[in-house]
Amino acid sequence: MRIPIDRDSEIPLYQQIETYIRQGILSGSIASGTRLPASRVLANDLGVNRITVENAYAELEADNLVHSKVGSGTYVMPSYPTPSLPKDVPGAPWPLWQQDLEASRGSRLSDELETQITSSRHPDLIRFDSGVGDSILFPVEEFRKILQAVLRRDGLLALEYGDPLGYAPLRSTIAHVLASQGLQTNPENILITAGSQQAITLAAQLLLKPGDAVIVESPTYARVLELLQTLQCRVVSIPVDDQGMQIDGLEILLQQHHPRLIYTIPNFQNPTGSCLSLNRRRHLLSLADRYNVPILEDDYVGDLRYEGHALPALKALDPGGRVIYVSTFSKMLMPGLRVGFLVADGPVQASLLHFKRMSDLATSNLAQRALESFVTVGRYQAHLHRACQLYRKRRDTMLRAIRGSLPAGVQVCPPQGGLFIWMRLPEGLENDQLLPLALAEGVSYAAGECFFNNRKGGAGFMRLNFAAQSPERIETGIRRLGKAMRRLRPFTAK
Ligand SMILES: Cc1ncc(COP(=O)(O)O)c(C=O)c1O
């Protein structure tokens, strides 16, 4: 325990120690049940007499904040804390610089909606709003064994910072996997990141400054919209249809806005689920080349394909240096691993590495080593195969349930892969009325507003995750959604 003590103060040392621990207990930062350091140890750490610490503990015990067990130690009493955050203390406002931050932060719609959903009181909420697959597929036991084996094999090495570019064998493995998908790259061009979110953030921080225009699909991934807002960039939206970004409108936007970046999700786009056609991929690359704009390609669930043929990544069609490719193990494996990566060529790669170092020095070494073992022994492919089979059935279950239980006015475009079904609501229905009713019925979804730069554009859309729930719960959830819709408008029954 590091207790700042002032030897020149008039306040006796035992009292300084006592006050410090008392504040910790009352604020909750020293949890009830915590064993305080033995008086001899603390006295030694602080360079004070043991009696001084014992006097401090005696004062705390007299006030019932701690109790000592003979032969065991001194423990913080149960029933504390009663957390009193500084802002709850009357007359103690946040410092001005903090108040400025609060005023300039603005609201984040996806956080607000998340709070609305998590504060639902329904005892059995079926969550279609999630952004990941089903945790029952997480290979917990296999991963535990692999972690143990890695620690046995690599010992302390696995616990060092490691290479900022990423664990070399994992980069080689990723290069092999990408090559099998038609994307030839060197392991040196791969940078391992803490999820693809970090890769996107690094690229945006490197390439953009306040006021810069960025072309994004509309709708698009909500956290990228928030990132661009935070970086004070101008978002220029280009609509998406069942073939991905509507490329015909791109050139005029490039001429009008001179964007510094194009962000695209070509496979199973979040939220619409659509895939950018091959023609459009080529067209996008040639326009980006002509107008000298980098492309940030986010391939977050490219491997979760249930039918149709995989199309080449933009990066694979790129003759060199135009595309920064980003992918992740979060959706195909486990989001908590926090392992993603980017592939970049040319000077931008070295700059991204520099930004990565400034951001967090390196991605978790242990997680990377375990992941490398998992992928190398072929477990990853087996896992992917299982996930695709399961999610395809769930997608079909949800599509059937939508046809059977929702009013005729809803429109969906069945996705060939990924995690989401994007749905247009019947004319006149909007999320601000529907979501509270759906939550009351016991079902949640991601409201369309999160995915549009002009939020209102999404009022009549929702994103439904079909991968994270069992078929039974999908059917029940969609029935509940239908009930909520009918409470708003008495549609004719199907
Ligand atoms: C389109 C898209 N890109 C990137 C991410 C970031 O995922 P992660 O940081 O877990 O790799 C997400 C997460 O939901 C996503 O939906």
Unreliable parts? none
Overall geometric form: globular
What would CATH call the homologous superfamily of the largest domain?
Type I PLP-dependent aspartate aminotransferase-like (Major domain)
Helix content: 40-55%
Number of helices: 17
First-residue to last-residue Cα separation: 67 Å
- Report the major sheet: 8 strands, mixed
Q: Please report the first level of CATH classification, the CATH class of the largest domain.
A: Alpha Beta
Structural class: alpha/beta
Mean pLDDT: 93
Identify the bound ligands. pyridoxal-5'-phosphate
Give a count of the beta strands, DSSP E runs of length 2 or more: 17
Annotated CATH topology of the largest domain: Aspartate Aminotransferase, domain 2
User: Which second-level CATH architecture of the largest domain applies?
Assistant: 3-Layer(aba) Sandwich
Number of domains: 3
Q: Roughly how many Å is the radius of gyration?
A: 27 Å
**Strand residues, percent:** 5-15%
Describe the protein.
- The strands form four sheets. The chain has an eight-stranded mixed sheet, sandwiched between helices. It has a four-stranded antiparallel sheet with strand order 13-14-17-16, with no helix packed on it.
- It contains 17 helices and 17 strands.
- The radius of gyration is 27 Å and the shape is globular.
- The protein has three domains: 13-76, Arc Repressor Mutant, subunit A (Orthogonal Bundle); 109-136 and 382-488, Aspartate Aminotransferase, domain 1 (Alpha-Beta Complex); 138-378, 3-Layer(aba) Sandwich (Aspartate Aminotransferase, domain 2), CATH 3.40.640.
- The protein has helices spanning 13-27, 39-46, 50-62, 96-105, 109-118, 140-154, 168-180, 195-207, 222-230, 250-257, 278-290, 314-317, 347-360, 365-376, 379-405, 431-441, 471-488; strands spanning 35-36, 66-69, 73-76, 126-127, 190-193, 213-218, 234-241, 244-245, 261-264, 295-299, 323-328, 340-343, 411-412, 420-424, 443-444, 446-447, 461-465.
- It starts with 12 loop residues before the first helix and ends in a 6-residue tail after the last helix.
- The structure holds pyridoxal-5'-phosphate (PLP).
- Pyridoxal-5'-phosphate binds at residues 131, 195-197, 221, 265, 270, 298, 300, 328, 330, 335, 340.
